[in-house]
Fold these 4 entries.
Entry 1:
Amino acid sequence: MVRAFAPWCAVFGLLWTSIPGWPQQPAAPPASAPSAGANASLLSRAVALYDSHNFSGAFAVFRLAADSGSVEAMMYLGVMYAAGQGTVRNYRQAIAWFGRAADAGDSQAMCNIGNLYYQGAGVSKNFDEARKWFRRGAVAGNAQAMFNLGVLYRDGAGVPADYEEALKWFRQAAEGGSAAAMNSIGVMYQNGQGVHADYEEAMRWFLKAANAGSGTAMYNLGVAYKEGRGVSVNPEEAAKWFAKASTAGEDHDFAKIP
């Protein structure tokens, strides 16, 4: 894989606006595609252009690579259409390119389509359709899709709230390395959602999530040490975790303990 950036399949963190009009679907790949070596060369060139912020040039080369069958290039095109990088922002085209990548088996594309339906970007907001795509990505092994599916069940978005089902998907996502899922499991143990309340178990998950980079989990550890939840009250330790949380990057998980 050549992907140089995270293709942003997170339920939270992106605010989009709809694009008017009904653009045509992208053209199908040409009948005679270049060799795998030529395609890899195109993709490497496009990634280099993207990384140098030459988005117009990158967009043109990604299109050539995508038309010759590169699933990676299709993903980049979907992201660039959604972000308006090197082209006019167009969510319907983003969905079309993510759809082609999903048809080729890319689980991240499946998750991204679910996110677009969840947000109502380029399509009518549809939690049922979002859940379908998240589940498809989750079954294909995508940890972000597993986390997003857990969020839908935890929050009752398009389905009755089901904490046990949410925990099931959060646990699978955590096994796949999702720090957001680890933090969410900790919050559910704190609140007794789907499990008996267990502050010590919550702390274990918060620490695991924090070590995996979750700024929200760092904040939650600060609260736990400040208020003595599962640990002895420790103002110095609380201050340490609050400071770490303030400098941590965005982790798209806003599940904080009350």
Entry 2:
Amino acid sequence: MGNRGQLHDIGVPFALSLAVAVVVCGCGGGGGGGSDNPPPTITNALAQTPQGFSFEGGVVTIQADVTDSDGVAEVTARVTRPDGTQDPTLVTIGLTQGATYSGTYDAPLNPRGDGQAETYLVVVSATDSKGAVSHSGSFSFEVPAETIPQPPPF
């Protein structure tokens, strides 16, 4: 039991020295520990369907304003279908003017025969030149239902 007291007496100063060393060594000069690269800012993300867009589907324009102090390297959009599956192809969105990026998605025809529109969800992602990534909130567009004329009344 005498040895146990000796270890305890030696252990406390050692433990305090170790704690001080960890605290002192843990204080850094700010380099390498955290991320000093904020991700791109995505605003005004939307999907536009052309006038006369019908149940047959067609080209939907996806656009967003993207800015980043390091430069924007890539902007894409992921489309989720009405059944909840993601389209396997990312929509490439290119710079069109100022900070506005734009691309197109070919929406398929609405196969439903029940008069219901099909809603697609879209999320835009942007990557800056240093690898930081951000995502827009989701937004949607609809492929309308086929309009079936009513038979005339008798």
Entry 3:
Amino acid sequence: MPSHLGGSSEPGGDATSGVCRSILDTVGRTPLIRLGALADGLAATLLIKLESENPGGSVKDRVALALIAKAERQGDLSPGGTIVEATAGNTGTGLAIAAAVKGYKCVCVIPDKMSVDKIRLLQAYGAQVVVTPTHVPADSPESYHRVADRLACELAGAWRSDQFADPANPAVHYSATGPEIWSQTQGRVSALVAGVGTGGVISGVGRYLKDQNPAVTVVGADPEGSTLSGDVLRPWKVEGIGGDFEPDTFDCDVVDRWIRVSDRESLTTARLLARREGLLVGGSTGTAVAAARRYAAELTSDDWVVILGADTGRNYLSTFFDDEPADGPSAGPSVESSGGFSAESSTGPSGESSAESSVRPGAESGAGPSVRRNRSGSRALPTRGH
């Protein structure tokens, strides 16, 4: 594994014995899977880069390690420090795993539209979870980005990772994910299809592939309601992609074409991937595969289309994989409402940050985890960035 990923500098950790030095050495080198049933009737070859095979279950493990490695090199993150991240779940998981291995504390600020599965996963790795309202403007002090900014200022020894602005995000995909795809396809890749959250994947991988072959087409798969592809802003259900602004980590010039996909088509496609291909993936991968199938209808047998499979469907078992989902927002985790989350409330009795200080068991049988929540505003805006 490349040293910039934060693991060992050699694949597998110990090259002589095949023993990994830690779980971090297993990030990257994910498989490329050829689609079968869902590619029926298409002349082109459709391939999924299965990032769910990373230890945290998503492509964001790569980003998390790259961000931490850079912060450590620059002295922004010191031993025993606290990582603070605004996340839709996946980047937070990658950071929490790395924090567990490296001895850091981790606080993840997430919007209340995220699945209970993601909250439980973050807590399982020892992260504290702060839930903020989705229904507020992006610049509201109650939004998940602004709450994370505030906590980073209040908590001693805190470092605010920022996947939306740090160039280490697209850089790791240019230096690692892109070369993996080029090598796995032996240079035959003719198109890349990916969703856009922070834009790091599509920018880094897309730029690398175009540098190898300028004829490679990069297709952005976007939810209906996202302004990235020029739609009128309105809410959508697919997590982690789409948005109402262009992050610093997104190079829009890399994208040659946009294909817009509805929630229904995205989530139906994700379920079909599990039931007909044996691939349990998230809704954003459903979006990307749906877009790729449309795009591939125009192609020939000479074309190889690589689809970015961003995360595992295990994060969504309580949502779109649930055949009988509970109704309404109360179906999510039990939430402890508070006027805010302060430095004092983020520490346990011993003065150390602890998950126990911000959670309590569900009040009813089967209730989800309880997490602190900031009070909400009113306007609905979507969430992105995994």
Entry 4:
Amino acid sequence: MTIEIDHLGLSVSDYEAAKKFYTAALAPLRITPIMEFPASVTGDQPVVGFGADGKPFLWLSGGGPTSHIHLALRAETRAQIDAFHAAAMAAGGKDNGMPGVREMYHPNYYAAFILDADGHNIEAVCHVGPQAAEAGRRAPAKRAAAKKPASRKPAASAKKPAASAKKPAAKSASRKPAKTAARRKPAPKPRKGRR
């Protein structure tokens, strides 16, 4: 089991505006609103849970801003980082760092930073280099090409033994009962002696 943060809650000054902003900004990262509860359910403020694959992990609630935080969300590709930055800017975010490599962290640290309306520093980061992502896209094609000759060779060799297997099977059909009976008799004797 991996130990990691399960979820995070943020209070925002304008709940509806923040919900709209985060819905637009996080969509390129496959992060969408999954659950939302009105104040009548929570007993205090409305909340919305953003997440991916059916699990919310970023909860926004009304009631005033939390002290400024830095939240980094991991992306799968560098293209998602670029799309996150563009979507967040279009939704009213303030640029806090254009998409690009931050080699001070490591050579493949590709990230973009946005400030939301409450001043929270929201980052999207990808730790995979462009070559690794490109190699991952090409690998299935190479593997499929490599499997074709391998699958042809066993098919050809499988035909030869199958044809030769038919001939001995026909010859041994009459011998089989005699050999089987001879083999069965000695086998039980050693087993009984061992027990």
